[in-house]
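User: Please predict structures.

Assistant: First:
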Amino acid sequence: MTGIRKSIADHMLKSILNTAQLSYFLEIDVTEAQKLRRLKSKSISKPISLGNVIIKASAQSLKKNLKLNSIIDDKSKQILYFDEINIGFAVALDNGLIVPVIHNTDQKTIIEINSEVIDLAKRARSNNLNPEEVSSGTFTVSILGTVDGFTPILNKGQSAILGLGRSIKKPVVRNNEIVIREMSTISLTADHQSIDGADAAKFLRVFQQLVESPKALFE
């Protein structure tokens, strides 16, 4: 086992052993988000991905649900809330993965987030990130576009992580009629020591509303 692979394995094992991880799943309609991101991408040089729409929606949802932007202090066992919303995103490498961080994500436009993600991911793959660019994350988004859904594992120092599966067109019922919509499965893993099911559900409801009526995300 290589050094980085062993480090990841140790990190994942400690995460499972030290937290009460519980996952929640929700299928959301990304049809309108896909339309808007493609339309917006026509006027810029770097096309906006659905993943970056999800990052923006996560930041906005955290502003309304600060309980998920928290951590349990190891010594006092008190719940501490972060002053900033810094979202990390998983980048796959040949021998593992790394999680660059977008600091103050909630204060950035979707175009700014998109540009920063592209830059950080490129430099992550060439091993050219600064220490501060992989630190101070308060929440993580993980994307696996080849599977329908999965259970993401918490990163150390965080209480929640969001997973995004692939988007696929499906027949769904709208107004008692069967229509074709583009759907994705969202998975939210949270530490049940600090985040109750009601808090997780509230976050997911806000998140779903933002993604399914996404105009505000692109302003």
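Second:
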Amino acid sequence: YDSYGTTGGGEFLAAATGVELYSLGEFAGRAEVFCVEKNEYISFNTTYYATVNTYATAGGVGGRDLDLNGDTVNDADSLDSMTAYLYDQFISGTLTGYDYDNTGVGRVASANALQTVIWGIEDELGAGWTPAAGLQTTFYNDALANAGSSIGSVRILNLYENSNLT
């Protein structure tokens, strides 16, 4: 489902069966999520099949070909630990500078900034990307200073239109 943000990415709202999604608790049965691949698209109010991985299976703009264990995965894009850190902070309600209390322009600005930083970290915005001033810089610098090398329990939902995962 659509939610805050106007970048063509998150915040999105996802409802799932068969997998536990963490949520800020604002929308019953729905979790707030972001997009890691800028050139892959979804339709709202649509049912998808999903796999849960440490990498995006189609690779996106900045696709790489190794998962976190160093195993070759064709056209996969591993989740960066900085992205995982930012999402973990976001979904915990503790991301410094994120306007959780505002349901208008402040929340949209926060969602847009976080989505852009996620795409930047995940190499979806091209070589040489740097965060814009303001929230993008705040989020990026926080991740740079605190992320470490682990993705913890954060994972990627790879979505498919069909049960045969296509």
